[in-house]
């Protein structure tokens, strides 16, 4: 145990925030209106041509009709959502794609319910066809298997922004976002068809195993202030948006901090994932005065292990994600996290995360109290140019 860290009162004025705004940050600024993917229409037309050819061959070979939806598929689709599955005509089908002609009552959700096992996967069809709704009689391609799970195109790469909040309330400076602004921001995400995904979803994406909606965004909230429970949870509930709350465990139960009972309620909401933000919130790359190599290494081990063990003991969660205090890490910190089985860790280097992002050095973008809606929108970096900085 390091005496200096343990003895430090909290919240320490210098330690209130996780950013180091004085540092030069490598920043990538995307175009404010990312261009639509030029490849997808081509892929789509190729698929139509290819399936059209297959269909023609099948008809010539004596097949009366393309394969219809199986009873098993219908059962699974209905169970997965509330939208009745689509009943329009299948123009062509293989094990990879379906070409489907929508009926007047069809929606992306009803088509997803029929072919993709659940209406929630409607974005697969929307992203592939570059549409936000279907038009009656206008065929759409339904990819049955992931065609580009990492979102890599000739001119752009998909990126996933991770937003970072701290406190919620009125007044109190840059690190405090007003409840009204937070609600405006999440309302805007919902209205504009952004998909707020869980941080855990990024792990499979980075391995190339699971595609993500083109407009994916992750919400994280650092430190563990009580205002998360009071102000953020109701807005998250309103939209059913998930979020990760990174807590440093020495803070839990302190004056302005969340209590264990509140953390249990957050975890029980099914929306909030409680994960680790160190034990003491010390800067992990700075040594205390007189700290030896051995003491430093032991301290890092404790900052990685203690919050995981304590949170897992008190809450029904697995702790595999870590937010570095002040966003700082070095090789020794990464080794300590690896030993403690952490899978993802976040910095405060701004920008979206592409397929090549390092899982333990993910970029994250601060949302400050003085950001208006335009500033918020400018921070949603869902793509970057190939070869861009
Ligand atoms: Zn922090």
From TrEMBL:
Pfam families cross-referenced by the UniProt entry: Polysacc_deac_1
Signal listed as a keyword: yes
InterPro entries per UniProt: Glyco_hydro/deAcase_b/a-brl, NODB_dom, Polysacch_Deacetylase
Keywords: Signal
Region named Disordered: 1-44, 67-87
Residue ranges constituting the NodB homology domain according to the UniProt record: 215-389
A Gene Ontology BP annotation from the UniProt entry: carbohydrate metabolic process
GO cellular component: extracellular region
Subcellular location(s) of the protein: Secreted
Compositional bias annotation for Basic residues: 11-30
Coiled coil: none
Protein name: Polysaccharide deacetylase family protein
Gene Ontology MF: a single term: hydrolase activity, acting on carbon-nitrogen (but not peptide) bonds
Keyword field contains Signal: yes
Top-level lineage group: Bacteria
